[in-house]
């Protein structure tokens, strides 16, 4: 009897404590949602009243060559904004202003703080960021809370991202499934059936790519065996130990390397030490900026891509007028698509700025673009690599 009474008292107490915590949690969520809704409302008012359309971006310094493509996109954004203002009457009759902050490459705290600084201003209509996949979780959460659309020109959506109600994130870059499909077809043509994935352990592009590759193979069953080893440091003895432990057992046909050029030399050395004479496939992380021939004799396959949006002839003429060489490199093309889509989203809404609708319409435009194979091309090229 006494035992039952004690259990009943403890149960009531536990329910009270848990209920209190749930109530606090729901209050926090409600408070966060209210703040975001309020931010969206204030942003809509500020942007629609403004005489200009303010775009925000945070760019890495030019001298940091590991972020070469982001520097190309920066130049592309500047050219595209000038073009829209000078030749297209702005966006909905308003001049476009590109507000940017430059930070040192690799300084994540400085990057996120700079995004916060820009996006805290309610006059900002949209944030163009990040240029590094590692920063997606923090930048996405920050801009979502601030009620501003976020569009990345160079990163992809990670399957590890938490759910957000009315997600504000879009990516203009080629979706992961397109890359993976081409890789699997290329590997199949070369008779590859058992793949060793060597991937960075953090939330880098390579980590995101490898996770998507595993998911895709679970669905499609293209490979007989897909085995993944993660690393923090290519020179870490633990990586060598893991490879020695598993390489002999699984008889791999190929390595899929998801890291960057920085670690690629160490990878080749390690594979030679293990006498692993099989081809290496990589992500596009190894494709820029300077193309050279690599001497890896067992076959190195690097993906190269082209984007083929419909670009106004007036823009090509504008490039030549601005003393450009007229080359539509990837930075200009991505910037063209991004700013053009922003213009379409706002003008198709009657010139009225709506953060939620911009994200919805932006994602629709991106999805429609990549549905057509004629709009882009991915091709694996043997033993041609980019050297940073």
CATH-wise, what's the superfamily of the largest domain? Response regulator
List low-confidence stretches: 1-30
Round the Cα radius of gyration to an integer and report it.
Answer: 24 Å
- Strand arrangement within the widest β-sheet reads 7-6-8-9-11-12
Q: Please, how many domains?
A: 2
Count of individual helical segments: 11
Q: Pairing-aware structural class of the strands and helices?
A: alpha/beta
Briefly note the CATH topology name of the largest domain.
Rossmann fold
Helix content: 40-55%
CATH class of the largest domain: Alpha Beta
Q: What integer is the average pLDDT?
A: 85
How far is the N terminus from the C terminus? 77 Å
Helix and strand succession? HEHEHEHEEHEHEHEHEEEHHHEE
Number of strands: 13
Overall shape: it is globular
Give the gist of this structure:
The protein is an alpha/beta fold and 388 residues long. The chain contains 11 helices and 13 strands. A 6-stranded mixed β-sheet has the order 7-6-8-9-11-12, sandwiched between helices.
Salient structural properties:
single chain; 388 residues; alpha/beta; Rossmann fold; six-stranded mixed beta sheet; five-stranded parallel beta sheet; globular; disordered N terminus
Mind explaining what this structure looks like?
The chain contains eleven helices and 13 strands. The chain is α/β, with parallel strands linked by helices. The chain has two domains: 42-173 and 309-375, Response regulator (Rossmann fold); 176-307 and 377-387, Rossmann fold. Helix 2 (68-87) packs across helix 9, helix 2 (68-87) packs across helix 10 and helix 3 packs parallel to helix 4. The chain is globular and about 65 Å long.
């Amino acid at each position: 009897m006494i035992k039952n009474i004690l259990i009943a008292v403890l149960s009531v107490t536990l329910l009270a404590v848990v209920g209190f915590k749930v109530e606090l949690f729901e209050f926090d969520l409600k408070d966060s949602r209210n703040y975001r809704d309020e931010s969206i409302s204030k942003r809509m008012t500020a942007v629609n009243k403004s005489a200009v359309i303010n775009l925000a971006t945070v760019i890495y310094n030019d001298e940091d060559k590991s972020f070469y493509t982001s520097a190309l996109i920066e130049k592309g954004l500047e050219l595209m904004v000038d073009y829209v203002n000078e030749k297209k009457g702005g966006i909905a009759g308003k001049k476009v202003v590109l507000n940017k902050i430059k930070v040192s490459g690799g300084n994540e705290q400085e990057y996120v703080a700079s995004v916060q600084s820009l996006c805290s201003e309610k006059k900002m209509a949209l944030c163009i960021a990040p240029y590094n996949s590692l920063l997606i979780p923090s930048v996405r959460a920050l801009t979502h809370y601030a009620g501003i659309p976020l569009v990345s020109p160079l990163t992809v959506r990670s399957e590890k991202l938490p759910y957000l109600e009315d997600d504000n994130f879009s990516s203009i870059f080629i979706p992961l499934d397109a890359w993976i499909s081409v890789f699997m077809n290329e590997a199949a043509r070369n008779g590859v059936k058992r793949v060793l994935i060597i991937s960075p352990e953090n939330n880098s592009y390579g980590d995101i790519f490898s996770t998507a590759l595993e998911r895709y193979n679970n669905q499609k069953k293209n490979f007989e065996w897909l085995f993944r080893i993660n690393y923090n440091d290519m020179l870490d003895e633990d990586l060598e130990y893991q490879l020695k432990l598993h390489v002999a057992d699984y008889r791999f046909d190929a390595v899929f390397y998801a890291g960057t050029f920085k670690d690629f030399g160490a990878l080749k050395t390690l594979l030679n030490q293990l006498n692993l004479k099989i081809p290496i496939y990589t992500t596009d992380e190894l494709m820029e900026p300077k193309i050279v021939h690599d001497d890896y004799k067992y076959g190195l396959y690097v993906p190269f891509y082209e984007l083929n949006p419909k670009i106004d002839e007036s823009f090509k003429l504008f490039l030549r007028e601005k003393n450009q060489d007229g080359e539509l490199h990837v930075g200009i093309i991505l910037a063209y698509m991004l700013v053009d889509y922003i213009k379409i989203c706002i003008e198709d809404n009657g010139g009225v700025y709506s953060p939620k609708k911009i994200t919805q319409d932006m994602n629709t435009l991106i999805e429609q673009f990549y549905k057509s194979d004629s709009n882009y091309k991915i091709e694996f090229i043997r033993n041609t690599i980019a050297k940073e």
